[in-house]
Every structure is written in C-alpha cells, then in structure tokens.
Amino acid sequence: MTLQHLLDKQYFEKEDIVQLLATEGEEMQQLLQKAREVKFARLDNYVHLRGLIELSNICRKSCLYCGVRSDNHKVDRYELTEDEVLECAQMAHKLGYGSVAIQSGERNDKAFVEKITRLVKRIKEIDNGALGITLSLGEQSDEVYQEWFEAGAHRYLLRIESSNEELYYKIHPHDERHDFARRLACIDSLLKIGYQTGTGVMVGLPFQTLDVLAEDLLFFKKKDVAMVGMGPFIPHPDTPLYQYANQIPSAEDRMNLTLKMIAVLRLMMPEINMVAATANQTVDPMGREKAIMAGANVIMPNMTPNEYREDYLIYPDKACVSDKPEECYSCLDIRMKAIGHQILYNAWGDSVAFTKKISKLVN
Ligand code: SF4
C-alpha cells in the first residue's frame, strides 16, 4: 500500500503500523507531518506541563534496565521530606505549571502509602485545589490506588515497558516482584477506579522488533488509555541490560523510531495526552522539540531539589539535571514558542480523550 493510502486510513492493522514504523527519510517526514496536522486540528498547539517531583529512589524492585534498581549498590538512596515535596509543588504552582507529577521507586509499606495520602491532600490544599496531581508510584493494591484517588490524585502513570510478555521478562527478573500479569492487572485497576491512566514503553530495547512495537501501540488503543509516555531506551552501565548495549540501534535510530511511535499513536489516538520524555532530549539536544513536533503535547520539567537529582538516574546523562526550576521555566517557554507551540499555564491540561469519554458516560 502507498504511504498516502496508509495515512488516510481510519484504522490501522498491525501490518500497517509496522509499515509506518519502517518509513525513513522523506516518507518518515510525511508521517510526522500528518501526525502534527492531526494534533493541531484536535488539540491546537498547546503544550501542558507537569512539574516532576522525584520523591525517592528507594525501590523494592530490580528492573534490569534501571539505574536505581535495588541491586545497584552504587546509588545513594534518598527520600524527600513532606515539606520538601510541598515546596516543590508550591514552586510549580507559582510558575503556573498547573499540575505536578510525583514519581518514586516502588514501595508498598504502610508508612509510604500514608505519606503519599497526606501529601496528595496537602497539595490539594494549595490555592483550593489549583494543582492537578499525577502519581507514578508503581504497582499497588486496588485499595491503595483507591485511597490515593479519593485523596485527590486523578492521573496515574504506570508504564508497561513492553506489552509483549516474552520481552517483558527479558528486561525484568522473572519473580514474584516482577510479574507481567500483575502489571496488567494494575493498569486495569487504575482504569476501573477512574484515573486518567497512562502507560508507555521504551523504544529501541534489545530484542525489540517492529512487530512488538506495533503490538504495543495496539495495546494502548485496546486499553483506551488517556496518556502515553515513550522514550528511547538508554543503556545504564550499572545494569544487567547494559551487556546488550552494542546490539541495539544507534541513538539516532532509537530517536527516530521513538518519533515514529509517537506519530503513529497520534494518528491512532488523536486526543490522548502524550509526553515528550526527557530521554528524548538526552539522546538528542532537540529531542523534546522533535517529540512535540511529532505529536506529543506534554512536558515534565523537573522540580526535584538539585542536590537529589544525580541520585535519580534511571538512565545515565539525563538532560537538565543541573537546571534550576526557574531556568527551566523560561527555557521551555522560549523553546516551545520557537517551534510554533504555546504552553498553557495555570491549567490541569487533562486528556481531551478522557474528558470526552467521561462526559459520554455521564450523559
Ligand atoms: S524502573 Fe521503577 S520499579 Fe523498576 S527498579 Fe527502577 S525505579 Fe524501581
């Protein structure tokens, strides 16, 4: 099928997606342009911000790609105090970010769960609930997800990392703490509770094929998620997966593949929120802008106090680690204007797809 025929299709089969992901050069540019046009038509040129607060790098898991995995004993572990988190949230509000995202290594102990509940409630007290709250705190019980939802969190990000079970177990240990079925069940639980649920994958993993990536996109569509985050895989030298670093596509190819994944998903799910992940900017200084131009519409500027950021390196050489929040603010504004986009300040920036779905259910 010609590219034009493909781009005009209403629904993509798996083989269509594979063909789109295989485009190069001029054809790839046509795909990105089409995705951009669809985004502008459905979501305008707005970019939404989530002030990212990296609460703690203490984690019970040991994902094979992750720099802060529990088996990496080179990492200094930290945990922000409640007041430090509140200060970050207040700064995000002052800068007009509209939303914060709290991310942490995974913990299920009572003290952690209760701390999050208190924090969500305290953040909701800032200016009468002015800030939207996304949580990204891993796998939890249905009861804990419900407790945090009732406290005021309304978005939750739990990346599947790969929807292919075989690949999942190549990038995670195969044990009771890293269980593919459990991860799927958690995503279902979040959807059922009513969170704007986000997921995502790394692109350019060892053993990952275009077929597998196409299945990932179909998985997002089938689950009807509200948000997706995808970024290029960046091997971390202190992790087991690093042994395959010479078997993965080049940084440029991983970046291009990520852009094509974003673009194809924008065509498949025109009104979801899609994050231009920091990993894009790490492999390419213009990576975040390229992701926005390929169809992404969310950026997560880092609000974590600078002294802790070096200890939250899931992958190495992360971009903007030394930038102060105020510097990030003006830098982002200029960068987005330069590519014809505008940041929507002081707004939650909810997923339009999700908002429409809920209003259909209510009416
Ligand atoms: S990816 Fe998340 S859950 Fe896995 S080891 Fe890293 S911080 Fe923990």
| Number of H- or I-type helical stretches | 15
Name the ligand types: iron/sulfur cluster
Mean pLDDT: 94
Oligomer: single chain
**CATH homology-level superfamily:** Aldolase class I
Beta-strand content: 5-15%
Helix/sheet category: alpha/beta
Radius of gyration: 19 Å
Q: What is the domain total for the residues?
A: 1
Order of H and E elements: HHHEEHEHEHEHHEHEHEHHEHHEH
Helicity level = 40-55%
Polypeptide structure, described:
With 363 residues, this protein is an alpha/beta fold. The chain has one domain: TIM Barrel (Alpha-Beta Barrel). Helix content is 45%, strand content 13%. It is built from 15 helices and ten strands. The strands form two sheets. A seven-stranded parallel beta sheet has the order 2-3-4-5-6-7-8. The protein has a three-stranded parallel beta sheet with strand order 9-1-10, covered by helices on one side. β2 (51-56), α4 and β3 (99-104) form a beta-alpha-beta unit. The longest helix is centred in the N-terminal third of the chain and has 19 residues, at 25-43. The mean pLDDT is 94.
